[in-house]
Write a structure and sequence with these properties.
It contains eleven helices and five strands; from the N terminus they run βαβαβαβαβααααααα. By secondary structure, it is of the alpha/beta class. It is globular, with a radius of gyration of 18 Å. Keywords: DNA-binding, Phosphoprotein, Transcription, Transcription regulation. InterPro entries: CheY-like_superfamily (IPR011006), NreC/VraR/RcsB-like_REC (IPR058245), Sig_transdc_resp-reg_C-effctor (IPR016032), Sig_transdc_resp-reg_receiver (IPR001789), Tscrpt_reg_LuxR_C (IPR000792), WalR-like (IPR039420). It holds the Pfam family GerE.
Amino acid sequence: MTTVLIADDQPMQRFGFRMLLESQDDMTVVGEATNGTEAIRLVDRHRPDVVLMDIRMPGLDGIEATRRIVATGARTRILIVTTFDLDEYAYDGLRAGASGFLVKDAQPEELLSGIRAVASGDAVVAPSLTRRLLDAYIHHLPPSATAAPRPEDPRLATLTEREREILTVIGQGWTNTEIAERLHLAESTVKTHVGRILSKTGTRDRVQAVILAYDTQLVTPA
C-alpha cells in the first residue's frame, strides 16, 4: 500500500486528488496540508511514501517545504504537481530534491503511474520535459553563470569514461532505450550504468542526474 500526503492550498484540488487516489486498491491518503509548514509537520507524523506537493502555497511554499523534508533524510519522495507553463519555480523544486513533476491537467492515469514510479524510487519526469524546463531556466541566467569554466566537480571523478558519457546523454534527454540503441548496448547494461551513476554521484534519481549534468557543464543549454 502506497501512502500519500496531499499538499495544496486549493480545497477542490485536494478533494479531486483524494477521490482519485482512494479509488485505487494500492493507495491511501494519510493526510492533507494547506501549506508547506503543515506538510512538513504531517510528513514527520505519518512518514508517507509520496507527497503530492503544490509549489505556490501561502506561508512556506512547496519548494522550501521540499528542501526541508529532503534534508531530514526521510524516505518520503516528493512529486511536484504544478502548472508547468506558468510556474517558473518548478526547476527550483527539482533542485530542492523533488523526484519529479507533473502538470495539474495531466490525465488521471499519468498521475497514478507517476505516484507509483516515485514510490518505487524512479523519477517521473520525461527526460525531454526535464530538458525543456532546465533550458528555460538557464536561459534566464546571466551569461557569465553558464559561460565561465568551472573546476572539475568531485562527483564526476569516480565515474568511468562510459558512465560519464551516459550521464551526458541523460542530460541531453535520451531515454534508456535510446541510449541502448545509439551506443549499441543492452538496455539492461544501460540500467546498470545508470544505477552506478546515481550511486557514485549521490543523486536521488534520474531528474537529479540531469541537474548534475547541467551543473557540471557536461550539458549546456540548447
